[in-house]
Amino acid sequence: MAGCCAGLGAFLFEYDTPRIVLIRSRKVGLMNRAVQLLILAYVIGWVFVWEKGYQEVDSVVSSVTTKAKGVAVTNSSKLGFRIWDVADYVIPPQEENSLFIMTNLIVTLNQTQSTCPEIPDKTTVCNTDASCKAGFTGTHSNGELTGRCVPFNGSVKTCEVRAWCPVEDDSHVPEPAFLKAAENFTLLVKNNIWYPKFNFSKRNILPNITTAYLKSCIYDAETDPFCPIFRLGKIVEYAGHSFQDMAVEGGVMGIQIHWDCNLDRAAALCLPRYSFRRLDTRDTDHNVSPGYNFRFAKYYRDLGGREQRTLIKAYGIRFDIIVFGKAGKFDIIPTMINIGSGLALLGVATVLCDIVVLYCMKKRFYYREKKYKYVEDYEQGLGGESDQ
User: Fold this and answer.
1) What's this model's pTM, rounded to 2 decimal places?
2) What is the mean pLDDT of residues 362-388?
3) CB under 8 Å, gap of 24 or more: what pairs does 147-155 form?
């Protein structure tokens, strides 16, 4: 209890004031200057030069539009000779910051609302009507079971369904891709950016780009890095993948546009940088539900007025355009804040040297005596002398 009271009294009735001690030591002096030099190098080199700590920063606001071009020719037993243009393989025609290009498909022609046998699998193969529960609709079924077990072909029976018939058979994906010529299609990316804090705007079609140049240029990372027109096969190649392999089951590609603008310099030096990567996972050891696909249908009526449709399961590549970046411009407030922080950091050198001198060096007790001086209360001392 007495110790606690003494500690509390020391806390309440003692006051520390800094004392300057000049220590003439090569080791301590060199260490102090070395630490100060490192702090100055950090503040000047990293904070001000590399991170541009003297600038105010703003994030980019962006809008993107795309336009694909290219024609493919196919000749198959199901569809016959056919020309595919932009209206056929770009689905839907416009999306926000992305574009889907169909590269492969499974077509089910002339479907009507009727009854027909299901595609054989472990849940639909049957031997008797008892195996087919009337009115049942499964998550993966094509329609509602009628309760009948009917022949699918000469050797297999399956449950009959009320559905769009004939039902789709997507057990085999065409390989190579049906629209393998999509490798040579081109994609024009138009990107407008704005930094609202600085009221600065620009687009990736640079001022020196002419209409004639835009009709003939193709992006190349080495020879033509500012052309906004990209060959689809090259985009996938830059990401380290094969377009023909990706076209079979589809996938997702990212086109990254990086704007890093120093507005203390000329506006012409604010230029876009492009990079590419595949965004969907592709693991050869665990390849469940790979690629990218969806279904859509085209509806019409036959001569008798009966509704029919053509069902298309479309495989393809979705190109997502991702725009990011920042702009900086000199401002006095961040400059003064970082200068003040740098000056405060210089105090670290003093703290570090004090720790070494007072706790690590051989003469630490000698330096501690010089560093600290204990002074009693002057008024108490006078009072004691008068009492005597």
Assistant:
1) 0.79
2) 65
3) 150/117, 151/117, 152/117, 152/118, 152/119, 152/120
